[in-house]
Amino acid sequence: MATRIKIKTTEGDITVRLYDETPKHRDNFIKLAKEGYFDDTLFHRVIKDFMVQGGDPESRNAPKGKMLGTGGPGHTIPAEFVYPRLFHKRGALSAARTGDEVNPERESSGSQFYIVWGKTYNAAELKQMERQMAMQQEQTVFNQLVKEHHDEIMTLRRNRDRAGLQDLQDRLIAETKKICKENGRPTFTAEQTEAYTTIGGTPFLDNQYTVFGEVEEGLDVVERIQNTETDHNDRPVSDITMNVEVS
C-alpha cells in the first residue's frame, strides 16, 4: 500500500503519495517526518512558475534575512532515477541536491525537497529540448572518453603531435556518436509530452534530480505558495511554515 504524507502549511494542506519505486527516498522521508524533523520549518525558497522548496532544519525560527538552503541531517541519499517513468510533471515531489561539479553522482540532500510547478510547453519547445538533451548526452560521453584517454592526450601534447591529436579527436567523436546511437537519443515519452503540454512541469530537470512522489491533493495550495511575494533570495516575505505527518 502506497505511503501518503500530509504537509500542513499556513496556506493549507498538501497530500503527497510517496513512490515505492524510490525506496531510499521514501523511507528517509518517512523517518524524518515521524521524528518531527520538518515541523515548524519553512518553504524557504520559492520561485514562481518553477517550484517551492523546503526541508532545511535551519529555517526553523529563522530571522528575516538569514541565508537558508544549506542545512540538512548530515547525510545524502543515493540518486534513484526511475526515468522516464517518474518525471518532473507539475506536482512532482523531488529531492534537492548540490550541483554536479561537487556532486557528480547526483546524490540527494538528506532532507531538502521541492514540489514542481513549472509551466506548460508546446510541441516545438519540447522538440528543441530534445535536441539540447542530445547535445548534452554527446558532450557527457565525449568528456568521459577524453578522461579515459588522458595519458595518451598528454603524451601527444608533450610531443607536439598535432596530427596525432587531431586523429585522436576524430576517433573520439566517432566513438561518441556510436555510443549515443547505441544508447538511443533522448526523447520525451508520450506520457511526458502529454503532461508537459497540458498540466505543465519542469522537463529540463528530468534525469537530473530524483523524483520520489507526487501531489494527490492540494495542488491549489502549491499554486498559492509559488505565487507568494519573495525577497531577493527567493524567500517568501511572509513565512510559510509546515508540519509533516505520515498518513
What's the topology here?
Elements: E1 3-9, E2 12-18, H1 23-34, E3 41-47, E4 51-54, E5 76-77, E6 92-95, E7 108-109, E8 113-116, H2 123-148, H3 150-158, H4 162-183, H5 190-198, E9 211-217, H6 219-226, E10 241-246
Antiparallel strand pairs: 1-2, 1-10, 2-9, 3-4, 3-10, 4-8, 5-7, 6-8, 6-9
Helix pairs in contact: 2-4
Protein traits:
247 residues, alpha+beta, 2 domains, 6 helices, 35% helix
Overall description:
The protein has about 250 residues and is an alpha+beta fold. It folds into two domains: about 5-120 and about 200-245, Cyclophilin-like (Cyclophilin, Beta Barrel), CATH 2.40.100.10; about 125-185. It is built from six helices and ten strands; from the N terminus they run ββαββββββααααβαβ. The chain has helices at about 25-35, 125-150, 150-160, 160-185, 190-200, 220-225; strands at about 5-10, 10-20, 40-45, 50-55, 75, 90-95, 110, 115, 210-215, 240-245. The strands form two sheets. An eight-stranded antiparallel beta barrel has the order 1-2-9-6-8-4-3-10. A two-stranded antiparallel sheet has the order 5-7. β1 (about 5-10) and β2 form a beta hairpin. α2 (about 125-150) packs across α4. It is elongated and about 65 Å long. The relative contact order is 0.26. The model has no long low-confidence stretch (mean pLDDT about 95).
